Amino acid sequence: MAAAAAAPWFRARLIPELKNRQSLLYYRNGDRRYRQSLCFRKRSFSVYALAGDEGAVRVRFAPSPTGNLHVGGARTALFNYLYARSKGGKFILRIEDTDLERSTRESEEAVLRDLSWLGLAWDEGPGIGGNYGPYRQSERNALYKQFAEKLLQSGHVYRCFCSNEELEKMKEMAKLKQLPPVYTGRWASATEEEVLEELAKGTPYTYRFRVPKEGSLKIDDLIRGEVSWNFDTLGDFVIMRSNGQPVYNFCVTVDDATMAISHVIRAEEHLPNTLRQALIYKALGFPMPHFAHVSLILAPDRSKLSKRHGATSVGQFRDMGYLPQAMVNYLALLGWGDGTENEFFTLEQLVEKFTIERVNKSGAIFDSTKLRWMNGQHLRSLPSEELNQIIGERWKDAGIVTESQGFFIQDAVLLLKDGIELIPDSEKALSSLLSYPLYETLASTEGKPILEDGVSEVAKSLLAAYDSGVLSGALAEGQPGWKNWVKKFGKLLKRKGKSLFMPLRVLLTGKLHGPDIGATTVLLYKAGTSGSVVPQAGFVTFDERFKILREVQWESFSSNVPLSAAGAVTH
Asked: Which of 169, 307, 460, 498 is catalytic?
């Protein structure tokens, strides 16, 4: 009852039928003010919920532990976190595990792990505690029963003894009449004697909430503006099942009220639940929080994002090699922007920039290509020591390098990082660098211009430079040695620019494309002399490359002889 004792300023205007008298009710919680105007006529009234932004902000993320944390749920958690931090408020984590058949502790642990990985630290909740616990719905049943009994005593709730068969018949009749499937059973008006008779027989019953027959609810949604519902679209609804378990909408309302939640920021699919929850708030005498309903995350075809579109859970993206910084950055941009063209934000910058007013009510398209690009941006923005450690450990675990740190790792990361968007990409990048697909390149369509440009003559001079030890001596000096050598080599052949560097790239790396040829050549030379690469990693050393180069039958390529007949060597 902590929340009731510390409720916000709340004014309810009651207008009884045929009377002009008004009565005003006030509740307080800090400086936040609420106003509800309730107009009654035969079980009919309208609710207008207006609230200010002045009091202590308390928001919550309330996942169900029935599976992995979906990116949509992660974005909802992020928006709650950002709003709380930007307002100096509290971010509460509550586990909604009333679905006893599907909820598992393993799923709960996975959700907590994913939120922690994203950096969304909660102020109250599992593992931390707080003044408003317990923070698992399964541990709050006594509280739900207490408030259900209170509603029963006040007449807002009644016992319903209808069987499942009776309820199905009501639905069928409503369908035939093209009416909403609202409850029309007799237990809403049953006499005390009828109820006592069923109780004596031990007939199972649910608790149903009495919904006004006329009237409407209006809320000022912080994202969607004014939203309204008519009560005639809703029949008397169940708040407690016959097995004693509370229903979702009842749990959520009691939890949000007793935990003093000031702002409910959630997915738009929960928007229809607001009507039921508002009625429960009013019946229990609790003020309503602010509501903000966030749009759905859509697939490129504008359907709801689901497993058929690929990875959808935070855990999957983590396992694929995405960074938490990139996930947070990208999820924030799904429906929000700071009004500039900037798309690169750290979590701290998001806290500084975030406002709920800039959240878009339209659906946001999940673009995996953009997420991958953004991850590359964040990856390359890491401090060099951290990036070297992450990629170095990845290469060592993959069995490519002998050590996860050192000069070779530093040089290789510096050379390859611009082509790496995900951590696993680094394996392919280094393996490609170490390979030597010379025959495949020469036999390709793209290789034809190189052959026609006299690459065989360049090869002869290059072999001579290697055999004499001049090339090896230059490479041992690093980049300065390479630059001096290649300048002299170009003058010797009377080549420069593309006509010099393209054939050199093909002859030294076996490829037509790649990072800087000078840095690549120096790194490959170091790899062969330092023992940094595991022998079984598919690395073709300089000695092996020049051996292959010696065996090339250039005439066979000019004559369009098939690759297999050209004496291809596989390494």
From this structure: 307
